[in-house]
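Need the bound structure for beta-D-glucopyranose, inputs here:
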Amino acid sequence: MNYEDFFSIKDDWNLQIEGLKEEQFVHYGSNLLCGNGYLGYRGTLDEWDKEQYQACVITDTYDLADGKWKELSNSPNALTTELRVDGQKFGDYPEQDQMITELNFNYKYGIFRRKSKSKTVNDLEIVSERFASYDNLHLIANNYQISKIKKKKIELKLGINGDVWDLNGPHLENFKGEYDSQKNILYLKANTVESKIPLVTALSFKLIKGKIKNLKVENEKKSIYLLLNIEAEAEKIELERNMIVYSGNDRENPLSSAIKDAELTLELGYQKLKEKHQAVWDEKWKLMDIEIKGNLLDQLAVRFNLYHNIIAAPAHSEHLPIGARGLSCQAYQGAAFWDQEIFNLPMFLFTETETAKNILKYRYHTLNGARKKAKDLGYEGAFYAWISGKSGKELCPSFFFKDVISGRKIRNHFNDWQIHVSPDISYAIWNYYLASGDLDFVINYGAEILFEVARFLHSRIHFNQYKDQYEIIRLLGPDEYHENVDNNAFTNYQSQFALKKAIYFYYKMENEYPEKLQQLIEKIQLSESEVTAWQEISEKIYLPQPDQNNLIEQFDDYFDLEDTTAEVLENRLIDQEEYWGWPNGVAVFTQVIKQADIIQLFTLHDIFSEEVLTANYDYYEPRTQHGSSLSPSQYAVVAARLGRAEECYDYFKKSAFIDLMSTNKAVSGGTFIGGIHTAAAGGIWQLIVNGFAGMKIDKRGLSFKPVLCQDWKEVNFNLNYQDKKFKAVLGQNSFKLTAAVENNEILKFSVFEKEYTLKPGKEVKIKF
Ligand code: BGC
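Answer from helper R.:
Posting the output first, comments after.
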């Protein structure tokens, strides 16, 4: 596939799309998303609405309108635009008949720019630009211009349209719109249907060029509009407008906040707002950017992915999850999976530590949801939700897929058997501790999670007295096609790790912070015998070992399953939309796996020899379908560790373009499946830093094992490690680490297992 079928490259930050294709509308909306972790405004034309998947997803607005699917709500659209030129409605869908449009997206500042030339009205041009502000998270600012107007009658219908696109809605009711003619502000109040969260959308606007000759207010059931007759000035009309959104979860009085911001933003004007917004991004990129020299397309793709991982994270809050599709649409319920800790988080761990902390604090605040889930299923401690919204209660329904052949519902056990999400969170806490050195967080928040996860594992695990070992039976690992398996290696190793870290911090606190430990023991009623039991389990848990061929079995008896490939299975499908997994799918009784599983174990734990890595990589690779966007980046990391730079690069191509060159159907089996794959986006950071640069972290500190693909001349990235800043430069045969002058300590690190020390302001350069 050629990228030029999808977009062209303007430069290393800017992507361009010329001539819009209808089958790509869903992807434009997601790929060209303006976002800031609070809201996500899809990349649609100003004149588009729900038919073309226009939406602005607002964080923290969970609503269960249909009694089945809790999801985030879409805000009414305050950038609604209807343009009439001499009475002819313009820019309406299908736009191809009327306009030639060029879209441009700037990933440095998240700026969507659209330029359309009329085919029907000679020379008439529309240029519109918008961004979701990082300076004021509630704001989307827009500059809209019409030029080359030759004595035409221009009518513009602006306003706030509450008739929005919803997957499982409608989520809004009780609309009330008002127009304040003094201030030029419109607002629309509503509330969510089931959760009753008030939501206010406001619009302020001013004409920079042109004169309003006539204005009429139009109230509809779910919307409020202004019909404007406008006289052009020097053949031009220029409009600045601000869309402001506040919910009742943000402020007690969202209306007054929205009006205040609407006024203020109008006063400041588009240019000033843009500068303030850009200044925030400039700061972010200082640590988060990755520069690729030698391949412009790859550079742009890397930034695309970094951008999307950043805007998916609600960095402003410690109470909200990163959705598997971020805020790009309502799919996957705006909720966190294990993706959050294992895929999205690593980038923040080594760049924006505060954001990493907030992500983990979210797991602390949702402990009660996890406790409830454990209790409901007959366990103790914290069993985290497979799909976790604001409260942490399980959002994953028991019936996720439908058998397309029989039409019957499939009882998948993602919600009750996919237990690795709990130890994955413990794993992330440990890594946060190593990367930040923030013991305070562990003592005040992390320890409680670690203890409750250990408690859960204790209650979930079985003792096999014949083998004198602990086992985890009836579960599913990362590979979701095989459910109801025993001793998934990934889960068993992760569980041992989680138990060990709980024990480690228990004794560390006992020695260093006995009072804090005592408080926590009392709070969660922890007994010493429990800790002794964790110790015994961690020593006697069954950890599948490499066999005579160095292979680790993914789960008990996996090697006895039919040995085949995904290509063979494709020919066995009766219907292309069939689900491949448990209980009856084509992959179930075969060794074909959906995604990295043993390989996922390797990316997280560096405890196996190179021979074992090689044997398993070569074995599992041809048996992996990569049916999940999470998979390629993890294979890439292990490929690089094996020195197979070109294979890592092939996986880069697979992973980095999942959304950029998406030909996936937007809707499958009646379910909308579009949106940004945020785990793949976060995976790109891992692929480069943990893969090509071979960075690992453990108690001894940072280590690197660099290797680089032929296509890239150089990679530059930044690290924030224990409050010290570093710049890394990876070349074809060299690796350089420079320490920021302001660092207050020497860094000890290793490259190819050789140790180095790095003083503030100095650099270490290694040739290989
Ligand atoms: C993957 C899971 C992942 C989920 C959300 C599924 O397709 O198999 O590993 O957590 O998508 O991204």
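Comments: The longest strand covers residues 198-209. The radius of gyration is 27 Å.
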